[in-house]
């Protein structure tokens, strides 16, 4: 077993957006698809940056619910 | 306080809030005369700036008469007596649909009551004169609005006002009002303050009630004032303090007013310039503005906020996800009625896998602890507010450190890592030369708005920062 995950190919964000739109019940005009995919690409890069920082399991999410 | 000059004292349409309140309380001028001068200036000037979406003349004059009547009957008219103010149009105003810069929201039922902060300012004697333009649903740093038109920068009409509180920055810098309310999720108070050359206070997360405002990102949304002096910010801020059960995150801490200690100076304060992430990725002028402020404070220390780039990325993710989720139903039914640039960002945000967002919130916990550690050694951190001066209206890209980037999402590179953990900031305006102004963030530890305001006031006294009314006639 290795600590490193198996490298995955870059995602097809156009296909992802089309499927996610179906899941969300969101009509996605084909004219917008390229822009949505471009935004997903920026978000994916941001997620990669955040995920690159090791966090302990004890680091709880910041929002706190006060009953 | 320095008394206003004769011309300021008589030109009530451009006078500072503190001068107006003093004169109305003393009976030197009536609130009605102040409000009438303000409404007249809006009618003459706003067609060039486009800061206002609603002018509430009848309501404002009635309120002014009430303030004058209170004073005439011997009642104290309040610390903001007769001060005209306006609010970003995501604040509820009784009788208006809260549009939040959108087309869709215009069909909402008109608000039944004013937002909490409007009620508190009016209880202190201030007078609401209108609602202000903003980027659609606050997802914007430019001050442009596809439905209402852009708010133009009063100091150069061919340039952006900054956003999303562009109307607030434009109205204050144009001298249409001495005080405006705005919101800041990732920089929407600090960016237009920087571009328009005025002062803005983004308080600690949870400090001022958000009740009666249209949300964007509940985890990051703040409300606060913009004005042309730190004193006016403090006066308004103090009047808005207090718990509010109607806002789930409003603090239960007792009010800690800033005005009583405003003149305390900077003695004993440990001040440092943010290094690393905050010292690159911008135009040289952005860092020259920080250096100007640091010099005025005799500050030679630097401090490194760890992992600020990741903090910005995490704020970006949380913003997209919460914004997308908030608007999902509108995106399903009315996608064609959004500004396309906002729509596509929101759609992408709604599609984000949950673990990305959860990870960002967990990182937020780590980053908060790391930055709070820094505040064991320093009281104030200085950083640029924006990476550049106001871009030209409609400009789509800019070059920062040799890299071409889209303008809209990248104006907030220096503000996002700060609001991400809710630190209080006063944005102060710096004029390096004959060009447009730049902003510097004066950042304090949580709940120490008083410290940031003290520093901003000291800088004004030294002549290092100032917020002149734009020369628009």
Automatic annotation (TrEMBL), chain A:
It comes from the Bacteria. InterPro entries: AtzG-like (IPR025148). This is DUF4089 domain-containing protein. It comes from Methylobacterium planeticum.
TrEMBL record, chain B:
The keyword Hydrolase applies. Residues 34-450 form the Amidase domain. The keyword Hydrolase applies. Gene3D superfamilies: Amidase signature (AS) domain. Keywords: Hydrolase. It holds the Pfam family Amidase. InterPro entries: Amidase, Amidase_dom, AS_sf, Carboxybiuret_hydro_AtzE. It comes from the Bacteria. GO terms for molecular function: hydrolase activity. This is AtzE family amidohydrolase. It comes from Methylobacterium planeticum. The lineage of its organism: Bacteria, Pseudomonadati, Pseudomonadota, Alphaproteobacteria, Hyphomicrobiales.
């Amino acid at each position: 077993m290795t600590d490193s995950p198996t490298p995955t190919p870059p995602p097809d964000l156009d296909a992802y957006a089309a499927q996610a739109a179906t899941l969300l019940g969101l009509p996605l005009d084909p004219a917008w698809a390229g822009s949505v995919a471009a935004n997903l690409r920026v978000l994916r890069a941001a997620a990669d940056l955040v995920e690159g920082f090791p966090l302990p399991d004890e680091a709880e999410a910041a929002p706190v619910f006060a009953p | 306080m320095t008394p206003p000059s004769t011309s300021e004292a008589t030109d009530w349409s451009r006078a500072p809030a503190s001068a107006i309140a003093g004169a109305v309380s003393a009976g030197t001028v009536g609130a009605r005369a102040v409000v009438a001068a303000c409404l007249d200036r809006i009618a003459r000037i706003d067609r060039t700036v486009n800061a206002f979406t609603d002018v509430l003349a009848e309501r404002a004059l009635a309120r002014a008469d009430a303030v004058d009547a209170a004073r005439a009957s011997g009642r104290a008219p309040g610390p903001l007596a007769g001060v005209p103010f306006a609010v970003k149009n995501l604040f509820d105003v009784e009788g208006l649909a809260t549009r939040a810069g959108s087309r869709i929201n215009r069909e909402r039922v008109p608000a039944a009551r004013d937002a909490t902060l409007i009620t508190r300012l009016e209880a202190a004697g201030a007078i609401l004169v209108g609602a202000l333009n903003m980027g659609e649903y606050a997802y914007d740093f430019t001050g442009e609005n596809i439905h209402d038109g852009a708010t133009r920068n009063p100091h150069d009409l061919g340039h952006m006002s900054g956003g999303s509180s562009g109307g607030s920055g434009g109205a204050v810098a144009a001298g249409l009002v001495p005080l405006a309310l705005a919101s800041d999720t990732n920089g929407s108070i600090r960016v237009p303050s920087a571009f328009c050359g005025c002062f803005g206070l983004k308080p600690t997360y949870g400090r001022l009630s958000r009740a009666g405002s249209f949300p964007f990102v509940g985890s990051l949304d703040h409300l606060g004032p913009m004005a042309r002096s730190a004193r006016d910010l403090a006066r308004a801020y103090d009047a808005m303090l207090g718990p509010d059960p109607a806002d789930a995150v409003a603090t239960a801490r007792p009010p800690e007013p800033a005005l009583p200690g405003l003149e305390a100076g900077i003695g004993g304060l440990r001040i440092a310039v943010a290094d690393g992430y905050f010292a690159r990725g911008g135009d040289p002028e952005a860092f020259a503005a920080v250096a100007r402020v640091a010099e005025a404070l005799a500050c030679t220390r630097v401090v490194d906020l760890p992992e600020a780039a990741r903090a910005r990325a995490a704020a970006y993710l949380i913003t997209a996800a919460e914004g997308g989720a908030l608007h999902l139903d509108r995106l399903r039914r009315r996608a064609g009625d959004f500004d396309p640039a906002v729509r596509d960002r929101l759609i992408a945000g709604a599609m984000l896998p949950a673990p990305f967002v959860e990870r960002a919130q967990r990182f937020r916990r780590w980053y908060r602890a790391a930055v709070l550690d820094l505040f064991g050694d320093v009281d104030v951190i200085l950083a640029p507010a924006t990476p550049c001066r106001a871009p030209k209206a409609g400009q789509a890209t800019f070059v920062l450190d040799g890299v071409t980037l889209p303008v809209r999402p990248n104006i907030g590179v220096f503000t996002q890592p700060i609001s991400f953990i809710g630190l209080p900031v006063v944005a102060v305006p710096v004029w390096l030369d004959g060009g447009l102004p730049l902003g510097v963030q004066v950042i304090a530890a949580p709940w120490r708005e008083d410290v940031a305001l003290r520093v901003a006031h000291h800088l004004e006294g030294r002549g290092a920062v100032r917020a002149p009314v734009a020369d628009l006639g």
